[in-house]
Design goal:
There is one protein chain. This protein is an alpha/beta fold and 512 residues long. It has 2 domains: 2-219, Rossmann fold, CATH 3.40.50.10260; 230-509, UDP-N-acetylmuramoyl-L-alanine:D-glutamate ligase. The chain has 21 helices and 18 strands. The strands form 2 sheets. The protein has an 11-stranded mixed sheet with strand order 1-9-18-17-16-15-14-13-10-11-12, sandwiched between helices. It is elongated, with a radius of gyration of 26 Å. 53% of the residues are buried.
């Protein structure tokens, strides 16, 4: 699903009116009906609403919602906030509301709602939409704070008031919604943290605008929704066998971190790879063999510290030549020889390559080794690893994750899967996929190793690099959501993801 800027969304509305002759009032009516439908789906027991309307078109949407809910038998109270009178389509909606007998009340200050019962079942925030470009102030800030104190859940029309459509920032004063209904496409604030934390559940309603209009508006930010993930999921033909489903080679493990190799291998197995081989230091061979029954093992020379020895680089390159994908990094540790092996292998391997964890750290300051590769590469850093790789402060990565992911993809000529809340998959050239699944339970050791194996497995089955990374993020996050529903977020462990990966993928197989 595309995520468009406010300017791009306005251009779609403009073209709908100018090129197709669709009146703006029709778009407002369709928006209102989308809100009414979403209200019925999410709050089926509700029979009363309080609607807070600003002076612009967002307020006009709110008054149109009020009219339709009134006709459906809801108890409706409309609050016109501020001194300004609505104009244009919003003024027409107010006039219709008055003729229809909908209750309208003006709120100029907190004195106007002091003592109000406010006993409706759903609050509807129609103060401001995605076009707001300034902080809320005056009576609008007071009303936003009041809405947040009410017992009734809040439905936001277009965007919770106070947020700015193109910004991921969370202003000091804003409405926190349980449900947001936006139109045609999400905007950056709907999908990027921390602003998305105030959005609640997101519904994207159709305004009846011909798809050709949106298709002609540029934009390179996308949301990995269920339909997209389902379209990417590999399907096995009847004649499939293990040799046709990809062979993943994983170079991983060091003393104390054999579990990383096991989790990556099992993630790849659950991701559908036909064969998985774990290349580990020879002393770890029996441990990994015993813990991952379905995968194969390959012993590589161990360094004095027990990790992979640099002398094993040639053997690893030879082994990769007969496999579909090489993933390198989980649990390699910080040993000097393991880092030397990584720097020797990365430019020489001619297969697609997934680089994670310690392998990313080994490449800090050596982006030339990535750029020189002829085969495609996927990097799976968290902000700290990406900061070290690019030579920048991780705080700068965290403050602009979208920009950092795009910069990293361009500087490394690789697909960059930047882990974190709303994991980002950035492709060279600027396209970015935002992942909506997952929860804070993933903030525990080993979950990234599972993700590395999953990326490699999906990629080995024939997906493009960006598709494999974005789909892996979706499946991984969905498995975490399923696991958290059973264990809670606090107790979630990396191994809990493994039995939920098939359930997550089954959701995609069953998608209409």
């Amino acid at each position: 699903m595309r995520v468009l800027t406010v300017a791009a969304s306005r251009e779609i509305d403009r073209r709908a009116t100018a090129d197709y002759g669709i009146p703006s009032l029709v778009l407002m009516e369709n928006a209102a009906l989308g809100v009414v439908d979403a209200l019925g789906e999410s709050f089926p027991e509700a029979e009363s609403v309080g609607i807070f309307c600003g002076p612009g078109n967002n307020g006009g949407d709110g008054m149109a919602v009020a009219r339709h809910l009134d006709l459906r038998g809801f108890a409706v109270e409309v609050f016109l906030v501020g001194e300004s009178e609505p104009t244009g389509d919003a003024a027409l909606q107010e006039a219709i509301c008055r003729r229809q007998g909908v209750r309208l009340r003006r709120l100029r200050s907190s004195d106007d709602w002091r003592g109000l019962a406010a006993d409706w079942e759903v609050s509807i925030d129609a103060l401001f939409g995605v076009g707001l470009s300034r902080p809320l102030g005056g009576v609008f800030a007071e009303v936003a704070r009041w809405i947040d104190t009410l017992a009734a859940p809040c439905l936001a029309v277009d965007l919770p008031s106070g947020l700015r459509g193109d910004s991921p920032e969370l202003p000091e004063v804003h409405v926190r919604a349980a449900l947001t209904v936006t139109f045609e496409t999400p905007k950056p604030a709907h999908v990027l943290p921390p602003a998305c934390d105030a959005v609640g559940d997101l519904v994207v309603a159709d305004l009846g605008i011909p798809p050709a209009i949106a298709d002609g508006v540029p934009g390179d930010l996308w949301l990995t929704d269920l339909d997209t993930a389902a379209r990417w999921l590999p399907r096995r033909p009847p004649a499939a066998h293990k040799g046709t489903c990809g062979h993943v080679l994983i170079a991983a493990g060091s003393p104390g971190m054999a579990g990383a190799a096991v989790l990556a291998a099992r993630g790849a197995i659950r991701g559908g790879a036909g064969l998985v081989t774990c290349a580990v230091p020879e002393p770890l061979l029996s441990t990994v063999d015993a813990a991952s029954l379905e995968s194969l093992t390959l012993a590589l020379p161990a360094a004095a510290d027990g990790g992979l020895a640099a002398a094993g680089a040639a053997a690893l390159v030879r082994a990769a030549a007969s496999r579909t994908i090489l993933a390198i990094g989980p649990g390699l540790g910080a040993g000097a020889e393991a880092a030397e092996l990584v720097r020797a292998v990365v430019p020489r391997v001619e297969q697609p390559l997934v680089v994670d964890a310690s392998a990313l750290n080994a490449l800090a300051g050596r982006l030339d080794l990535l750029r020189s590769r002829r085969a495609p590469t996927v990097l799976t850093p968290h902000p700290g690893e990406l900061g070290r790789l690019l030579g920048v402060d991780p705080a700068a990565i965290a403050s602009d994750r979208l920009g950092a992911a795009r910069e990293a993809a361009d500087r490394t000529a690789a697909v960059v899967l930047l882990k974190g809340q709303r994991t980002l998959t950035a492709l060279p050239g600027g396209t970015v996929w935002v992942n909506p699944t997952g929860n804070p339970g993933l903030a525990t050791g080993g979950t990234g190793d599972v993700l590395t194996g999953l990326v490699a497995a999906l990629w080995a089955q024939g997906l493009a690099a960006g598709e494999a990374a974005a789909l892996a993020a979706w499946v991984h996050g969905s498995a975490a959501d399923l696991a958290a529903a059973a264990t809670g977020e606090l107790a979630l462990a990396a191994a809990d993801l493994l039995p939920r990966l098939p359930q997550a993928m089954l959701q995609l197989e069953d998608a209409p």
